[in-house]
Amino acid sequence: MSSALNKVKNQNIKDTNSEEFSGSPKAWFILACGWAFYLYEYILRASTSVITNELMVDFGISASAVGALAAFYYFAYVPLQIPCGVIADKFGPRKVVTTSALLCILGSIIFAKSTTIANAQIGRFMIGAGSACAYICCMKIASVWFRKSSFAFIAGISMMMGTFGGIFGGKPFAHLANTQGWRSAMIIAAIVGCVVMVIAWLVIRDKPEGKKSIPHEGGLLDGLKIIAAKPQNWLIGLYGCMMYLPLSAFAELWGVPYLMQRFSITNETASYGSIMVFIGYAVGCLFSAKLSDRWHSRRKVMALSASGTFIGFSAVLFLPNLSFDAILGALFLSGVVSGLSILYFPAAKENNPTKYSATSVGFTNAFVMVSGLVFQPLLGALIDYSWDGNFDASGTPVYAFKDYQFSLTAVIFALLIGRIIVFFIQETYKKEKLS
User: Fold this and answer.
1) Could you read off the pLDDT of 150-201 as tens digits, one per residue?
2) For residue 56, how many C-alpha atoms fall within 13 Å in the half-sphere facing its CB?
3) Residue 11 falls within a domain, yes or no?
4) What does the pLDDT read at residue 211?
5) Widest CA span of the chain, in angstroms?
6) Taking all residues of the chain, what is their mean pLDDT, rounded to a whole number?
7) Against a cut of 0.85, is the pTM above it?
8) SS3 for the chain, per residue?
9) Which domain holds residue 196?
10) Is residue 434 part of a domain?
């Protein structure tokens, strides 16, 4: 009788825990705090796209130097992806998010107060270091507080929340920078970061009460060794790198000046182009898991994403008679199909042991963010290569539409490479049973 009672009791506990871990209001609230930090850091990441001209004038630099300055974010962000994944697995998201928010705040202040390009680079580097854990911690929260079957959906929703940050880093930040000055705008962003940091510390919890932590056997790098030993993880990461370029290269930096030159418009108006990419990407992320479930495949959706994004951005760059409104529509649709590629995160997780979920996401995200580290300065260098050498009265280089079009062609080639990589990625889709 005692054994039977214990069995019933244990089953009740299991059922209660299953309900709690599968998406209780508390779980969603904690995840929302992770999303808030991800959205916030994305505003900081994307803000340089609408102040490129101001940075050139203030620091007396060229497009190549602006690209390098923006990329200092990624110089910190990329190398920290794997350590952040390991640390999030080991110490939990609460401490990591709070500390990271503090780094973003300090970096924003240094960037705003910089009088030399070197100081601005330090500020941008600190912002990148603080931002490195944002998406990883959202995925860690998802893996601990929700059922396995929800992971792909939450991965898409989380990326969507980040793109909202890109939207706020577009026209709203451009308006703030135009009215208050870009330096004051960065100080305001730092104040917002203080609010995010306090909320994260007060709300985020590493795991539900009563849920056992998966023990970390061996050293901190054991999971990384297992993940790095699988060629499929490298292919998934390379695919993610190519497919993130519409955001990291176009929407986050060079899309606004490209549209300004093509249509002779202001940075606020041109920022709608980036906003369309971000909104479209958010929509694609939202439906990626559902489409994958319908097709019972990650790989098919990833292939569709690569093909559609290649066609869409080729049209944006090379169809000469498109109106600005038509370009916005094309950018939105391109963003939608691009957002479907977010399945590289579930694919990476499904390809590795569950206890290394944050490490596997960090490993993949390191590849994804290399896109910004490499292509933001690369496109700046290509702009300078195509430049005819003209300066304005203040000595700032004057770039033509052809210069931006030439440089962005590199994105088209990268998207084509992404489509080729899909041929070599194995299917990871498995219909998870509710537990």
Assistant:
1) 877 887 788 888 888 888 888 899 899 999 999 999 999 999 999 999 999 9
2) 20
3) no
4) 61
5) 92
6) 86
7) no
8) CHHHHHHHHHHHHHHHHHHHHCCCHHHHHHHHHHHHHHHHHHHHHHHHHHCHHHHHHHHCCCHHHHHHHHHHHHHHHHHHHHHHHHHHHHHCHHHHHHHHHHHHHHHHHHHHHCCCHHHHHHHHHHHHHHHCCHHHHHHHHHHHHCCHHHHHHHHHHHHHHHHHHHHHCCHHHHHHHHHHCHHHHHHHHHHHHHHHHHHHHHHCCCCCCCCCCCCCCCCCCHHHHHHHCCHHHHHHHHHHHHHCHHHHHHHHHHHHHHHHHHHCCCHHHHHHHHHHHHHHHHHHHHHHHHHHHHHCCCHHHHHHHHHHHHHHHHHHHHCCCCCHHHHHHHHHHHHHHHHHHHHHHHHHHHCCCHHHHHHHHHHHHHHHHHHHHHHHHHHHHHHHHHCCCCECCCCCECCCHHHHHHHHHHHHHHHHHHHHHHCCCCCCCCCCCCC
9) 22-208+219-422
10) no
CATH number at residue 155: 1.20.1250.20
pLDDT means per 10 residues in the chain (435 residues)?
43 42 77 94 90 89 89 90 78 90 97 94 95 88 83 80 85 91 95 95 82 54 83 95 93 91 92 92 88 92 97 94 95 96 89 78 86 90 92 84 94 96 91 40
- Does 392 fall in a domain? yes
Q: Report the domain count for the chain.
A: 1
CA geometry: angle at 243 spanning 239 and 247, to 5°?
Answer: 145
Give dist(CA 329, CA 307) in Å, integer: 18
Any domain includes 433: no
pLDDT, tens only, 109-152: 999 999 999 999 999 999 999 999 898 899 889 888 888 778 77
